[in-house]
């Protein structure tokens, strides 16, 4: 299954959808009366965490996998963004502007037990939990531009992963936890890159100098990624087979904007 967001016109609100990995069986999960974005499915598949401005500002919500019974978990006046489930499904990492700048927090899956993991004057956001639950990758501009960092799940040992003058953001872990995939502007357009955790085996997966490719997410079976791109003119979601190089536009909806895929079992 792949979760994603879509809307028919630029002026419309974002709604959350689900589909199979070949683009079939598309189901709309939210009604599009508010901006509902950044959906991620829980490890057991029963819940979806997402961002919504339905209560006046962007907060973190959880709903059932069919879109029913949404619950506001953060309930504060600050902007909250980019949720990520821990592998055991008991906690959610997210970014919040509660302190006056973007920092990374973690809370229990019911919204309690909030703990702040980063604390500096930079913007820290887009946390993503490693498959073993021991690490969190995130994005920060603490060294002058947007780069990817990795820290222990308790916020300690914050280490820079990328080191480029260009923007690096939107990290996602491989299912075995040995690699990261992300989007980078280092080749004068946004491309999808991947590398081992020590920085070796760096490679450009999308390889299109005339398009922008964003938001990579790894398939559970390791041999594919999904991402969104404007390579066909509009914003569509693609899958890329890492062994064969086969690239497929799985939404291919003329006039529809589709972004932010999240691959799950």
Short synopsis of the structure:
The chain is an all-beta fold and 265 residues long.
Structure description:
- This protein has 265 residues and is mainly β.
- Helix content is 0%, strand content 46%.
- The strands form six sheets. A four-stranded antiparallel sheet has the order 3-2-1-24, with no helix packed on it.
- The termini are close together.
- The model has no long low-confidence stretch (mean pLDDT 95).
Oligomer: single chain
- The biggest beta sheet, please? 4 strands, antiparallel
Give the helix level as a range of percent.
under 10%
Structural class: mainly beta
Which strand order spans the largest sheet, edge to edge or round the barrel?
A: 3-2-1-24
- Using the alpha-carbon principal axes, give the shape: globular
Describe the structure using short key phrases.
46% strand; mainly beta; single chain; 0% helix; four-stranded antiparallel sheet; 265 residues
């Amino acid at each position: 299954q792949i979760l994603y967001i879509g809307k028919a016109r630029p002026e419309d609100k974002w709604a959350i959808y689900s589909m199979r990995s070949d683009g079939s069986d598309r189901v709309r999960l939210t009604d599009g009366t508010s901006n509902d974005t950044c959906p991620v499915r829980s490890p057991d598949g029963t819940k979806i965490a997402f961002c919504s401005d339905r209560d006046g500002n962007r907060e973190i919500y959880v709903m059932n996998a069919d879109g029913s019974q949404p619950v506001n978990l953060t309930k504060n006046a600050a902007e909250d963004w980019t949720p990520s489930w821990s592998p055991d499904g008991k906690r959610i990492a997210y970014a919040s502007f509660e302190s006056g700048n973007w920092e990374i927090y973690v809370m229990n899956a019911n919204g309690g037990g909030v703990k702040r993991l980063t604390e500096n004057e930079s913007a820290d956001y887009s946390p993503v939990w490693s498959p073993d639950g021991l690490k969190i990758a995130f994005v920060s501009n603490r060294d002058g531009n947007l780069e990817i960092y990795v820290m222990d799940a308790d916020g300690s040992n914050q280490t820079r992963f990328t080191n480029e003058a260009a923007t690096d953001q939107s990290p996602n872990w491989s299912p075995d936890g040995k690699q990261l995939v992300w989007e980078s502007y280092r080749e004068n357009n946004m491309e999808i890159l991947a590398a081992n955790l020590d920085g070796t085996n760096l490679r450009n997966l999308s390889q299109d100098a005339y398009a922008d490719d964003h938001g990579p997410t790894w398939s559970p079976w390791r041999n594919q990624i999904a991402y969104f791109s404007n390579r066909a003119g509009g914003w569509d979601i693609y899958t890329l087979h890492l062994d064969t190089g086969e690239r497929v536009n799985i939404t291919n909806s003329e006039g529809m904007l589709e972004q932010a895929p999240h691959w799950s079992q």
